[in-house]
Structures are given as structure tokens and as C-alpha cells.
Amino acid sequence: MAKKSNNINIRFNFMWIWAFIITAILAYSLFGEGRSVPVSADWNTVEEMISRGEVERIKVMNKNTAQVYLTDEAIATYRAGDEMSRFKNIPEQGEQLNFTIGSVDILDRDVKQAVADSGLEDNPVTLEYFNESTGWGEVLLNILPWVFLVGVWFFFIRSMSRGGAGGGNIMNVGKARAQEFNKDNPAKRVTFKDVAGLSEAKVEIMEIVDFLRKADKYRELGAKIPKGALLVGPPGTGKTLLAKAVAGEANVPFLSISGSDFVEMFVGVGASRVRDLFEQAKQKAPCIVFIDEIDAIGRARGKNAGFSGNDERENTLNQLLTEMDGFQTNAGVIVLAATNRADILDKALMRAGRFDRQIDVGLPDVNEREEIFNVHLRHIKLDENIDRKFLAKQTPGFSGADIANVCNEAALIAARNNKSKVERDDFMAAIDRIVGGLEKRNKTMTQTERRATAIHEAGHATVMWLLKDCDPVLKVTVIPRGNSLGATWSVPDEERVHVTNEVLEAKLAGMLGGRIAEEVNYGTLGAGALSDLERATKITYAMVAYYGMSKKIGPISYYDASGTRDTFTKPFSEKTAEEIDGEVKRILEEAYDRARKIIEQNNDKINQMADLLLEKETIYAEDI
Fold this sequence. Notes:
Number of strands: 14
Shape: elongated
Strand order of the largest sheet: 6-8-9-10-7-11
Distance between the termini: 84 Å
Largest sheet: 6 strands, mixed
Helix content: 40-55%
């Protein structure tokens, strides 16, 4: 067996030498001369000592400081004096006092006058004048800034010698911080099998992967590889996951970077990192570059142009445009990007030749949600009665990230209740938790307030149940969650593709039903309908100003899809604004009257539903 070497390599570090030198200078300055510190005084104190014959001589240093030397008798008297005296600990050797002077001539005159007034002309005070070099303390104060600058210089020299892109190397601040996917690590590998739903998006994205794998098949037909694809969709729908699946499936290098990684406090760094990123990609071609949250640098130019901080982002965008489709060729480099704000991206970035394909990654439908549940429930211990189709129907409008959160919350709730398996009730509680917020059963409410809440929710449910254009009611609850005291849940009809004015008007009536039920039964108006009124007002303004559903305003839309409109200006006149407000008020009043008529005709049923809510706290469609 070979002997293990006992040699220890001690790393030579200049910083320790600098620390030792500075410590030695400080120690010598403070303790090197081994003497007591003289007492700081003023001329009045020294004048009194001269009058008593206690001063032997005064040494003037550099024409600005006077050092006072007392007689031996005076030193002995002060050191043996009162403990509270500030002269108790004056030095026995050297100067005993010192003070600052303004003029040597004035000091000479004042000393002679003090000696004359004391009547001690036979024992005059000697004045001595000296010029000497600065003491160690002042030397240290003068050289310390230079020592600091030299130390910082050494630090940066050492940092630059280490290397490493984007790390401690100041010279690499312009290097791209892209991460290269390691396909040999199975723990982090994601494939298309892990991406549930998104069937159309996967078809388009898999075609790009297939082109990289079998480029000859496409080239024989004269096809050219797409230069880029933009993944667009709401947050949490799986855009980044889809890109990770591309990295897992493609047998080519995959560089991943976030849009915010290009942004830095130094001018020109963003453009430099874009150049470096594409330089790395060209060296690894064929290669895929993925830029997540590209809206961080791809926002449309020209907006807020007066702000200088916007110039750096625009320079970065200009460099990206040049690299993607400039005079230089990027053969074999495909750019994937993801954003949930495609409406604010620059038009030059969106054109063909840069992003040839815009792949919509939308919210999953009921079948896709079932597939997503199947993926996320693989590692959860489930009750055998769990129906994944039922769970998919209970989560309309949920994204893939929301469904993953539901599965995790359900498992946490089951563990909190000491269950051996995750049951259906755990999933329902998890959905309520995510949509409505944390349950607050301990919230203090009087019986009158609880009944008013039940009447309010029963009013919503009754109007929505009786209007055919409203979404079907799923359940009604009076359990407080988040900021709400109760809730009426409905399931959107996913088979409905087009939303008409009849549907929106019915939705408005359903939103106002709770407020009207309280008014009919109690004769008062509560503040609990704030969120209902807020949502109803927004929908009505959209109907009038965006969707053109008002005959008086006409088929005009003032919606700004580009996001570049100035916030402080309106695209219509003050007269039109008044007409829009009038139409909004008219539509809301019509919906209010429609809902009030339904509630007055069915008020007995509303009270019966309120009684049932107070008894069960939560009722479902079959109870209604």
C-alpha cells in the first residue's frame, strides 16, 4: 500500500501580510513608546499654573501645539492629590499637559505677561521651539487610505486570476450565465412523458426536436429549420416545463438562461452577455437556447423613452435582434423563449425570421386536467375511491401549477389529520384552500351576522340557479375563508366557446343577487358586497368600452392590447367618457332590477336555503 503523504500545502495569502503590517503599525503607535498620555488642557489652566510657579518650561511643536512640562514639586503634588482631579494621573516623565495654540507670537506675549503678573521674574518659564516629523498616529491616518486602495487592488487582481464566467472574475462580468443541461443526470431529466396535456404545443415543439435529430430528412425536401419558437401562455401552464422536456429529449446541447440574467447595473453588460450567449451556442451547434421570461428584455421599445434606465434594456434587445437575424448566420442554433406577456413584446422580436412560431400554451381543459392529475398523483398514496375525472371537473380554470399545488395541499391536509391515505374530502378542502384562502372557523360572528351571510350567499345561488345563462352552481358555504365570510361556487361551462352579452348580463345579475337578498330581507345595505360590486363594474366597463356591447356607444373597442398607451391619457373624449359611464350605470341597473325580481318571487326559498346553510355550513348542487 502506498503511504499517504503528510505534506500540507499552505496557501500563500498577501492579505495576511497586509493585516500583520497594519496591526504592527497600530500597536507601535498606541503602545510603542510606553508612556502615559498627557492631559489635554487650555491656556487658562496653564496661566493659573504659571502664577503658582508650577510650570518649568513650554515646548512649542510645529507652531501649533504647546507641550507643558511641570516642576517636580508640582508633579508630586498633583499625583498625590484628590482622586477626582483630572491631573491625578499626569505622566511623571515627559510632557504633563498640552494644548493647541493659534499664534507663536501671542503665546510668547501671554507667557511673559503671566510671569510678570505672578511676580516670579526670578524664575521665568522657558519657551522652546521645535519642528519635528509627524508622529506614527498621523502617519497612519495619512497612509491608511492608500493601504486600503492597494489592498482592494490586490483583491481584484486575485479575483481576476481565478477565472470562471460570471463568478468572482470581474473580467467575466459580460459573460452569459447560461446553464447547460446535463442529459446524463437522470434525477433532473424531464421528458415529454412528464408533460401532461398540451398536446398541440407538444406536437410543434417535438417537430423542432425531430429536425435537430434528423435534419437530413427535412433538408432533402428543401425545408429550413425554424430559427425560434415563442411559448406564450398564462403563468403556471407549463412553458418552462415544456422547455425542460425539450432539453431532456434532444440529443443536442441545451443552454438555459433567464431574461433577468441579462440585466445588470453596469452599462453594456446586457448586450455583452447576449453576444457571449450566442457565441457559446455557435460553438456547440447544433444547439438550443432557451430564454425564460423574455419580456424582461423584450419589452416594446419607445415606451417611457424619457427614462435613461430604459436605454440599457433597449441596447440589450437590439443586440438580441441582431444575433437572432442579423448579417451573421446562426446555423444550427434554435432559440426558444417563454413569456406570459406576449402583448408587450417588441414587434421586431415577434416577426418571422426570429420567432417563426408562436406556440400557445393555454389553460388545460377537463381532459388535460385529468392527465395532469394522473402525473402528480403518481407518488401520492390515494384512497381507492378517488375519481380523477371528478377532480378535473372541480378545477376549471386551474393551471398545471395550480393542480400540482392541489395535490400537495391534499396530502398535507391528510397528514395533518393523521390519515393513512389521501381521500376525496382532502382534495376538496385543498381546492377550497387555494381558491378561497385559509379557513377561519374561529372567526367571531353573531347569530344575526351569520344569518345575514347565509341570506347573502343564498341570494347569489338562487339567481344563478334560475338564470339559464349563468354558470351551474357547484356549492354554497358560509365558512369564512380569507377576506370573505362565505362563498358561492359555480363551474364554468367549458363547452361554451363564445361569450355573449346575454351570458355577461346573467353573470351580473348573479353577482348582485347577494346584495339584493340582504336589502329585501333586512331593508339595509351591507358592505360585504364590495367585491361583488367591484367585479360587476369591471365586467360592465369591459362590455361597453372593450366588447362593443352598447348600442349607444357602438361597435368600438378602446382596449389597448399592446400595453404601450400612456396611463395618464384616455383614447376617448370627456363626452364619450360620460356616455360610457352612463351606459355602465344603465346595464348595472337593469341587471339589478332583473335580480331583484327573481329574489322577491323566491324569497321563501332563499330563507329555506339560508336555514339549511346555517345547519350544514356547506351545501352542494344536489341540496339546492
